[in-house]
Design brief:
By secondary structure, the chain is of the alpha/beta class. Strands 4-1-5-7-10-11-14-15 form an eight-stranded mixed sheet, sandwiched between helices. The protein has a four-stranded parallel sheet with strand order 17-18-19-20, sandwiched between helices. Helix 2 crosses helix 3 and helix 5 packs parallel to helix 6. It is globular and about 65 Å long.
Length: 342
């Protein structure tokens, strides 16, 4: 049985091609995808293309763009077996993480991909990324999709989207998932790790929740941070949630003013989530005194969640108007496989 795939082009390097007349990079017309990549005809898929208007540089991505993208998937969900989202690399992990939280009870593949080199350049990485992302989005076991979750494919590896981080501005393997195994490795064949793939409960209805709050901040601690600077970050007008990037296993200064500023912010209703600055490893606030002091102040452990996923999750939960107890409970535990449970 052939699968039907919708490609959604949002913008980014992958969609650029050299104009023969001027030599300048111009947007690629994905409606002619079969002419550009005739090998796609050999895949067992039917492809439609939708280009968002206007296309956007990923450095300018806003939560409103996440909501629009989620809306497109909602509106086309019944018509297609899978989706491929083409996105700029700089904020792809943020967008893909946000979509994983917006799409409830997802039972179809949503595969993000892009490229480091424009698709119109001879040695682009975009060609292989695009073709393989389409193949993965259309892959099925009987009547079930192989990977029914939001994922990110780049340079021979498929990752859970909300576990990814862009770790290189120059390497073709631009993304990594340091705390969770790849969902698939791609070589001569595509080798899926079925034990790592998330599947929603059968019988639950797919829905989309695009409510997002931007009243959040990311605060990275550093040696020499002063009290006025820290307090100003925590007390910025309108801030309701803070992703606090700490050292190592979730450690931070134990200065009285530092802990006091956190306690005051939390008493005002600001939620503070502790994530590590390390690309690999987990927050454990039970190991050292510094971590225990944060825990006593009311800081929530983010375990091994990435900053990108933490921010997206916090924005979505605040946007839904969760009460304090519900918010804390949901932030402490995995809802889309974004963190490792103890």
């Amino acid at each position: 049985m052939r699968s039907s795939i919708l490609i959604i082009y949002t913008g980014g390097t992958i969609g650029m091609k050299t104009d023969d007349a001027t030599g300048a990079l111009v947007p690629f017309d994905f409606s002619g995808i079969y002419d550009e990549f005739p090998s796609l005809k050999r895949l067992n898929v039917d492809i439609d293309v939708l280009t968002m208007s206007p296309v956007i540089d990923s450095s300018n991505v806003e939560p409103s763009n996440w909501a629009a993208l989620a809306g497109l998937i909602r509106d086309n969900y019944a018509r297609y077996d899978g989706f491929v989202v083409l996105h700029g690399t700089d904020t792809m992990s943020y967008t893909a993480s946000a979509l994983s939280f917006m799409l409830e009870n997802l039972a179809k593949p949503v595969v993000f991909t892009g490229s480091q080199i424009p698709i119109g350049v001879l040695r682009t990485d975009g060609r292989e990324n695009l073709i393989t992302a389409i193949e993965i989005a259309g892959a099925r076991i009987g009547d079930r999709p192989e990977v029914p979750e939001v994922s990110l494919y780049f340079q021979n590896r498929l990752f859970r989207a909300n576990r990814t981080k862009k770790h290189s501005a120059e390497e073709l393997s631009a993304f990594a998932s340091h705390n969770y195994p790849a969902l698939a490795d791609v070589g001569v064949g595509i080798h899926y790790r079925y034990g790592a793939i998330c599947r929603c409960d059968a019988g639950k209805t797919f829905s989309v929740n695009t409510a997002v709050s931007q009243d959040v901040a990311v605060v990275k601690i550093f040696p020499g941070m002063t009290e006025p600077v820290f307090r100003a970050m925590l007390s910025a007008e309108g801030v309701r949630g803070v992703v606090l990037e700490t050292y190592g296993a979730g450690n931070a200064p134990t200065f009285g003013w530092f802990i006091g500023a956190l306690e005051e912010a939390i008493s005002r209703g600001v939620h503070v989530l502790n994530v590590t600055q390390c690309v690999s490893g987990s927050v454990n606030m039970d190991i050292y005194e510094t971590g225990r002091r944060l825990q006593e102040a009311g800081v929530i452990s983010g375990r091994d969640i990435t900053t990108e996923a933490a921010l997206a999750k916090m924005m979505c939960l605040l946007g839904r108007g969760c009460g304090t107890a519900e918010f804390v409970e949901l932030m402490r535990h995995s809802v889309r496989g974004e963190m490792t449970e103890e």
